[in-house]
Design goal:
Blueprint: H1 2-14, E1 28-32, E2 38-45, E3 51-54, E4 59-62, E5 67-70, E6 81-84, E7 89-91, E8 102-104, E9 108-112, E10 118-122, E11 126-130, H2 141-145, E12 155-159, E13 164-172, E14 175-180, E15 187-190, E16 194-198, E17 211-215, E18 220-227, E19 232-237, E20 244-247, E21 251-256, E22 262-263, E23 271-274, E24 285-286, E25 295-297, E26 300-302, E27 305-309, E28 312-317, E29 335-342, E30 353-361, E31 364-370, E32 381-386, E33 392-399, E34 408-416
Antiparallel strand pairs: 1-2, 1-5, 2-3, 3-4, 5-21, 6-7, 6-11, 8-9, 9-10, 11-16, 12-13, 12-16, 13-14, 14-15, 17-18, 17-21, 18-19, 19-20, 22-34, 23-28, 24-27, 25-26, 27-34, 28-33, 29-32, 29-34, 30-31, 30-33
Length: 417
């Protein structure tokens, strides 16, 4: 084995080459406003704060307004993780050392992380702890629904049994010390019996949310400041915590929250129409598939998009309201863009969907795009429609064969540019 390693090093030297530095991020799909997607490696940031990418033909500087995303969302951590009040998700170390991955007292949280070492932050910045989400996704959906999405008025303890207790979490260590409302004394719960804790919080004072930064361990940070001058990333979170520093090579995803593009999932719907194939009605989903799960395609997860069942029609107004900050500085949106495909939940070869885009020109609707029949497992199809003087846009999904069976249609990153 040693001789093989020596041979590889000598070969690189003889060829005048050097292996890719482990500190450099690997090439990923780069999506920019007004440009085609390309494979690009993130090199860092410039002194002016722009992102620097190595693209196939040249090195490009990309500002936050021009960035849509680089790569796709990292998978949910396999081990325990914490969620902060700004939505940041931080993966914790495995507890095989005997030390708990997270400890908590009345004032402070100590988290042992995979990529950022041991970090400490005020308890008020903590929103939730998932202890062993072996699976977060594998657990019954009813468990997840029992935890409030907004800050509750009391701490909430979710047990493996599915029971939820309201009260006060006193401490976390080798056990969870929790005093339910029905008890006069705290109760100690073994960690294997606890699935999650959601903490009450006053309305947090948050800074600007400029960027989502994903990492190889499944962490996903909501950044106010992001600097990467020399292969080392430094991040200040929106909740004010500035103790994050990691290797550029461990960074796996970026999405601008200040992009000049506007996602349809962030705009008001003008009209929704659904015609059930039989009798079961379906609603549309924002930033989720039609089943309420994450938007997935070809094993990749997307943060933004629309989930529709056949046969459905979503209509949006292309004339932003006066004073709307999301309006383009040029006065009109130029293009509608998206990636079309059935969600991975449909299964390979399952489902059959026609996608269509209509534009309203004066008083009539005109077909602007029509896809071939798409099925589960097909790669996403890019769509780019010039809007011209259209006043409205309609997204239509229709069934092809076998009725609407498993027609879980996604409009990934449906947006106006």
């Amino acid at each position: 084995m040693l001789n093989q390693r020596i041979f590889v090093v000598v070969l690189f030297v003889l060829l005048g080459m050097s292996p890719r530095s482990p500190a450099q991020a690997e090439p990923q799909v780069l999506q920019r406003v007004g440009a085609e997607a390309v494979q690009a490696a993130l090199l860092g940031t410039t002194s002016a704060g722009n992102l620097l990418f190595e693209c196939p033909t040249q090195t490009r500087k990309v500002g936050w307004k021009k960035l849509i995303r680089w790569s796709t969302l990292p998978p949910s951590p396999a081990a325990s993780y914490v969620i902060l009040v700004d939505g940041s998700r931080i993966a914790l170390t495995d507890s095989w050392t005997g030390e708990p991955a997270v400890t908590l007292n009345e004032q402070t949280v100590t988290a042992r992380t995979k990529l950022f070492g041991e970090i400490r932050f005020p308890r008020r910045q903590l929103r939730r702890v998932w202890f062993h989400p072996a699976g977060d996704y594998a657990q019954p959906a009813r468990h997840r629904r029992q935890l409030p999405h907004t800050a509750p008025d009391k701490d909430r303890l979710l047990l493996d049994s599915g029971d939820t207790l309201a009260g006060t979490c006193g401490a976390i260590g080798t056990v969870v010390r929790f005093q339910p409302d029905f008890s006069r004394e705290p109760i100690e719960f073994p960690l294997p019996k606890v699935t999650a804790i959601t903490f009450r919080n006053t309305t947090p004072k948050l800074g600007a949310k400029n960027l989502h930064a994903g990492w190889s361990d499944g962490s996903l940070l909501v950044a106010e400041k992001f600097v990467a001058p020399e292969q080392q990333v430094q991040i200040q979170l929106s909740c004010g915590f500035a103790g994050f520093a990691g290797r550029l090579g461990d960074l796996s995803y970026l999405r601008s929250l200040q992009t000049a593009a506007v996602y349809l999932s962030d705009l008001p719907v003008l009209e929704y129409e659904h015609i059930p194939y039989l009798e079961m009605p379906w609603s549309f989903k924002l930033d989720q598939n039609v089943l309420g799960g994450p938007l997935t395609s070809q094993g990749q997860t997307y943060a933004k998009g629309l989930g529709l069942q056949t046969a459905s029609r979503l209509t949006y107004d292309l004339a932003p309201a006066e004073g709307d900050a999301r309006a383009p500085t040029t006065g009109r949106w130029r293009r509608f863009k998206a990636q079309l495909g059935l969600d991975d939940a449909a299964g390979g070869g399952q489902g059959s969907v026609h996608y269509r885009v209509y534009l309203r020109q004066q008083s009539s609707w005109e077909l602007a795009f029509s896809s071939p029949v798409m099925r589960g497992g097909d790669p996403p199809q890019e769509v780019s429609v010039k809007l011209g003087t259209a006043s409205q846009i309609a997204l239509v999904t229709d069934f092809a064969d076998r009725g609407d069976e498993r027609d879980y249609a996604n409009w990934l990153e449906a947006r106006l540019e």
